[in-house]
Amino acid sequence: MPPFRVIVVGAGMGGLSCAIDLAASGAEVTLVEAASAPGGKMRTTPSAGGPIDSGPTVMTMRWVFEELFAAAGVSFGDRVRLRAADILARHAWPDGSRLDLFADRSRSADAIGTLSGKAAAKGFLDFCDHAGRIHDTLRDTFLTRPANGPVGLSQRIGLGRMERLFDLRPFETLWDVLGGYFPDPRLRQLFGRYATYCGSSPFLAPATLMLIAHVELEGVWMVEGGMQALADAMAELAQSLGVTIRFGVRAEALILKSGAAAGVTLAGGERLEADAVVVNGDPASLRSSAPLQPMMTPRQRSLSAITWTAQATVEGMPLTRHNVVFSDDYPAEFRDLTDRRRPPQKPTIYICAQDRGDGHATPPGPERLLLLINAPPDGDQNPYSSQDIRACETRLIDQMGRCGLRLDLSSAAVTTPADFERMFPGTGGALYGKATHGWSAAFERPAAGTKIRGLYQAGGGAHPGAGVPMATLSGRLAAHRLRADFASTQLFRRAAIAGGTSMR
């Protein structure tokens, strides 16, 4: 009996994890990727000091990767070297105040107490408890399970645990619920920023996103060799399982036979036939092949970004690995982004100082830096002229200066929403699929299966959501669904490795 053949399009986290699971189950997998390296949005920018992480900069939810590698019969710790962050992030405001959040929540509570008083420290601990309950409720009922709608989620949680359902606070915004924990607007701003981790506004996103605080407290990990080392390790594992990876190859069209997916046509005309196809990319990339779902409007898109990558000398404010410089008017920032559809006049700035650890030591000479501000997903409408970029850069430098930070960005490489649109067509530069706005948004992300038999999707735009570990879970869910759909054909050569490839 011939092997079961699967083509995976896109070597992002979802495509790589899907390929690993399918190959470990005995499928013959070909992975095609238009870029020259794996990782998808996990990309790097060259500099004189070495490559700079220009996409995700940290790894969380380590268990996701440990389970993936264990399913393939290898140890994640043997393949990827990690270092736990002690300081999760350093935060600064224009009024001169600063706050470090730590992996140890008691140290964070002490720091918050010093900044805002004992009541704020208690509010933080209560907030962490609430975030932990949300996470524990959703981990095995939503994050690692196929999409099943609000009724299905309620059934998974169980009618006897209704208090858990109410604890999710889906009908309240993150911003409103944070106000009950943090009267200090600086702290409300700090924890409201979690909504931007999935490209959303804290003024529109559900309070359920508080679970991100718990995810960070479980561990924020720095990957030795940069985030690209994680993608490389996953690609190497896939190849060791027999996956054929073809880089620099773009899939342009889906091959359909009798209404079912039967392969892809590559740029240049080459046809690759298969029994099933998994597309790891934004759901918008599938619409050219079939009307799988309604076109997402620009206002439904998640946020984009403008980034600066540079090797530069830092002066003034001492940095740690991860830093956030806040504006003094968070509502105005999001009015610019979601209402006026323009880069914020007073942006909040994320700075990854890649050559630093948790300490205060300043590297000698220039260091590798990534700076990021949120931007509207209008890359298909706004070309972002050099004048636009200079205006944004002026505001960026002014905002950093108000917090005591100075650096020269004259030689920086800039990436705009228009650039992200070119890299990921059909998105407008949106980096996280559909925005998580409103109680139902989490249920509106596409499931692994599609209306076309044999066609599946994975990635940050699909269930369970955006981010490195979530996209990885989406790939595993796609592999799980594919195996279930084709189980009756008995085309897989061997059963999944014990303890491994099936999801919860």
Would you mind describing this structure in some detail?
This protein has 504 residues and is of the alpha/beta class. It folds into three domains: 191 residues, FAD/NAD(P)-binding domain, CATH 3.50.50; 114 residues, no CATH class; 126 residues, no CATH class. 33% of the residues lie in helices and 19% in strands. The protein is built from 15 helices and 21 strands. The protein has a seven-stranded mixed β-sheet with strand order 7-6-16-17-18-14-20. Strands 9-2-1-13-21 form a five-stranded parallel β-sheet, covered by helices on one side. It has a three-stranded antiparallel β-sheet with strand order 10-11-12, with no helix packed on it. Helix 1 packs parallel to helix 15, helix 2 runs parallel beside helix 15 and helix 8 crosses helix 9. The longest helix is centred in the first third of the chain and has 26 residues. 53% of the residues are buried.
List the defining traits of the structure above:
3 domains; 504 residues; globular; seven-stranded mixed β-sheet; 33% helix; alpha/beta; FAD/NAD(P)-binding domain; 19% strand
Main beta-sheet annotation:
7 strands, mixed
Sheet/helix structural class: alpha/beta
User: Mean pLDDT, nearest integer?
Assistant: 92
Q: Which parts are unreliable, with pLDDT below 50 for 5 consecutive residues or more?
A: 493-502
Overall strand count: 21
> How many domains make up the 3D coordinates?
3
The general outline is: globular
Q: What oligomerization state is this entry in? A: single chain
* CATH superfamily placement of the largest domain: FAD/NAD(P)-binding domain
